[in-house]
Amino acid sequence: MADTAARTLVRTQGRRAHAAFGGRRSGTRHPLVATAMVLPLAALLVVVFGGWEAVVVQASSVGAMLGR
C-alpha cells in the first residue's frame, strides 16, 4: 500500500512524456482541419486516375435516372 504513490507518480510522468513527444490527445479533429489534410491527396488521385470524368459520368447517369 505504501508503494501506491510511487506507481502513480511514474504513470503520470509517462503520460507527460508521451504527450511531449507527439502523443495524440483524446478528442476529435476539427472538420476543416480534416478537410485541409485530405484535399491535396484527393486532388492528386483525381488527376492521376482521371476521377473527374468518372464523377461527371456518374452525376449524369444519376440525373438521367431522375429524369433531368
Tally of domains: 1
Structural class: mainly alpha
Mean pLDDT across all amino acids: 76
* Uncertain parts: none
Sheet-strand content, in percent, reads under 5%
Radius of gyration: 25 Å
Shape: elongated
Protein name: ABC transporter permease
Transmembrane segments: 32-52
Keywords: Membrane, Transmembrane, Transmembrane helix
Describe what this molecule looks like in 3D.
It is a single chain. The N and C termini lie far apart (75 Å). 0% of the residues are buried. The chain is elongated, with a radius of gyration of 25 Å. With 68 residues, it is mainly alpha-helical. It has one domain. The chain has three helices and no strands.
Would you kindly provide a brief summary of this structure?
The protein contains three helices and no strands.
Key words describing this protein structure:
single chain, 0% strand, mainly alpha, 68 residues, 3 helices
Annotate the secondary structure layout.
Elements: H1 4-20, H2 31-49, H3 51-66
